[in-house]
TrEMBL record:
Annotated protein name in UniProt: Ferritin-like domain-containing protein
Lineage: Bacteria, Pseudomonadati, Pseudomonadota, Alphaproteobacteria, Rhodobacterales
Species assigned in the record: Ruegeria arenilitoris
Record CDD domains: Ferritin_like
PANTHER family per record: 3-OXOACYL-[ACYL-CARRIER-PROTEIN] SYNTHASE-LIKE PROTEIN (PTHR42782:SF2), SI:CH73-314G15.3 (PTHR42782)
Segments crossing the lipid bilayer: none
Entry-linked Pfam families: DUF455 (PF04305)
Top-level taxonomic group: Bacteria
């Protein structure tokens, strides 16, 4: 029997080694798009039971965010630590995009939904590899430093809520990436670290699409339920995201990704919603 897309997604999730995970991710993305182009037989989406936590390598050691040592980005060691943190985010992102496919296979969605997340997973795989290449060129590697534990929390919290997943992962967490990446590019440009600048510029350009897909499918689901997207977004982010959103925002790139200011600005203060019993 040919593999279904959700089976492929689960296989990526259960591959522990970083570069093995991204190699498999790219292979399955290529197989999906070959089938979608009609070059090979169609692949069913199917349903699967993905693990609650994806498999990860033994290293890096995962620490609570406050225990991860902070280093100044003005030093080479600081820049390595920054890239190491980016590599960790990208590897999580590979799993997050395959997880949304595997986890919600039972929710009927248009085929374009799967195309979008497979494309994102393929891009995150390249992001991870590019950042690993930079680390290795600087004499380090992914796993050489500790990394943040808890990056999977948003996925766990929204494991049963597709709209919650879209609100928190692409529309809050990945949108945050758009806010902070220009500052990171500046750090590496000042250090004349051309390889890192090139990698971060690719990441910055491609991440706009990930946020846009989140917004697109979030609006699609709201439309299907005849719900007000802005209201639902505020409810879901307050339910699943721990803490307020932090300005400054990259309003231009957020707009390009289909995130209007009235979606995120009201979430910058941890105010209770009318009729919301929380807090
Ligand atoms: Fe990425
Ligand atoms: Fe992304």
């Amino acid at each position: 029997m040919a593999k279904t897309l959700t089976q492929m997604a689960t296989e990526v999730l259960t591959t522990a080694d970083g570069r093995s995970k991204t190699a498999l991710s790219k292979r399955y993305a290529a197989e999906w798009f070959a089938a979608r182009n009609g070059d090979t037989p169609a692949i069913e989406v199917g349903t699967a039971t993905p693990p609650l936590h994806p498999s990860r390598p033994d290293k890096p050691e995962l620490l609570s965010p406050r225990d991860v040592p902070r280093r100044r980005p003005g030093s080479e060691a600081g820049r390595i630590a920054l890239l190491h943190a980016v590599a960790h985010i990208e590897l999580n992102a590979v799993d997050l995009h395959w997880d949304i496919i595997a986890r919600f296979g039972h929710v009927p969605m248009p085929i374009g939904f799967y195309d979008d997340w497979v494309k994102c997973a393929e891009e995150e795989s390249r992001h991870f590899e590019m950042v690993c290449d930079c680390l290795e060129a600087m004499g380090s590697h992914y796993g050489a430093l500790p990394a943040h534990a808890g990056m999977w929390r948003a996925a766990e919290d929204t494991a049963e809520d597709l709209m919650g997943r879209l609100a928190v992962v692409p529309m809050v967490l990945e949108a945050r990436g758009l806010d902070v990446t220009p500052g990171m590019i500046d750090i590496f440009r000042k250090a004349k670290a051309d390889q890192a600048v090139a990698a971060l510029e690719v990441i910055y350009a491609e991440e706009v699409g990930h946020v846009a897909y989140g917004s697109k499918w979030f609006h699609f689901l709201c439309g299907r339920e005849n719900a007000d997207p802005k209201y639902v977004f505020h409810q879901l982010v307050r339910r699943y995201f721990h803490g307020a959103l932090k300005p400054p925002f990259n309003e231009e790139k957020r707009a390009e990704a289909g995130l209007p200011p009235d979606f995120y600005w009201p979430l910058t203060e941890d105010l209770p919603l009318p009729g919301d019993g929380k807090r």
